[in-house]
Structures are given as structure tokens and as C-alpha cells.
Design a protein that fits this description.
With 156 residues, the protein is an alpha/beta fold. Helices cover 17% and strands 36% of the residues.
């Protein structure tokens, strides 16, 4: 998920009921929203450009972790294959992830980058602020090094 901007749609809990973890690609909005997600499931997040000190002291700008042999890189402003944000391509090349997640654009994108051997995901935005017309989430499974069962979820 990404770009909640202080709004947590109640159906997030329904759609994430069976997941092991929730990942947020920034622009959370406030600590109360993060508290709700942390209380619900294990939670990983990065801060975004609208996040204040309450979020920035809790979450990093860049997060690297590995799940089921899949190295993950998450940053709020990351761009996408062919148009990475300044410095991001070098970051990817220095320590290559298999999965690169970013937010910020409010545009849902899932794009393979064969040149850098990764899959890029931007879940779009699931908050109310911004120019997006549809609130979106991504749900997927990682198993033994494979990213599977990717679903795009549209919230009403």
C-alpha cells in the first residue's frame, strides 16, 4: 500500500486479513494510522515527502529486507524502470533487489525491469488526497524466492 495521506480505508483490514505482513511505501500521514496497521499485522514502512517528524523518526527513507529469499528495496520516491528517481538506479545497482517498491506517483504500476533483473511495484494510492480516481492496493505472495498471485485491489 502507499499514499494513505491520513486516511485508512476500513476495507484494508478485510483485504489484508490473511496476509503475513503489510508494507507501506510512504506518505502515511500520521502516527495514529501507522499504529492501527502495526496493531493489525507486522508492518514495514518508509516515510514519504508529506510525512512529518512523528513518522520520520519511526520509519526510514529507504528500507531493505529479505522475505523468502527475495531481496526487497522500498523507497517512497523511486520512479520506475526507464525513469528512476535520481540516485535510485545507482542504489539498485549497488545492492540489487529482486523486488523494488515505490509510491508517490499515485499511479499503480507493476513493471519488470529485465535490464536490472527486478520487478517494480507501485501500489498506487489508497488515501483520499491526490488526483487518483481509484484507491488501489496490491496483494501478493512470496514463496521460495518467487513472487506469485499478484492481485490489484480497488477500494470503493
Amino acid at each position: 500500500m502507499s499514499d494513505t495521506h491520513n486516511y485508512l480505508h476500513p476495507q484494508v483490514f478485510k483485504y489484508f486479513e490473511d496476509v503475513d505482513e503489510i508494507w507501506h511505501a510512504g506518505d502515511i500521514g500520521n502516527a495514529g494510522l501507522a499504529d492501527q496497521l502495526e496493531a493489525f499485522k507486522p508492518f514495514r514502512a518508509v516515510y514519504g515527502n508529506i510525512d512529518g517528524a512523528d513518522i520520520r523518526i519511526r520509519y526510514p527513507e529507504v528500507l531493505r529486507f529479505t522475505v523468502e529469499d527475495v531481496p526487497v528495496l522500498m523507497i517512497h520516491i523511486g520512479g520506475y524502470p526507464g525513469k528512476y528517481a535520481p540516485g535510485v538506479k545507482a542504489m539498485i545497482q549497488q545492492q540489487p533487489p529482486k523486488l523494488f517498491i515505490s509510491g508517490h506517483s499515485h499511479i499503480l504500476k507493476v513493471i519488470p525491469d529485465p535490464a536490472l533483473h527486478l520487478l517494480h511495484m507501485n501500489p498506487g494510492a489508497c488515501g483520499q488526497q491526490g488526483w487518483h480516481k481509484v484507491k488501489t492496493l496490491l496483494r501478493f505472495r512470496i514463496d521460495a524466492g518467487n513472487i506469485q498471485e499478484l492481485e490489484v485491489i480497488e477500494l470503493p
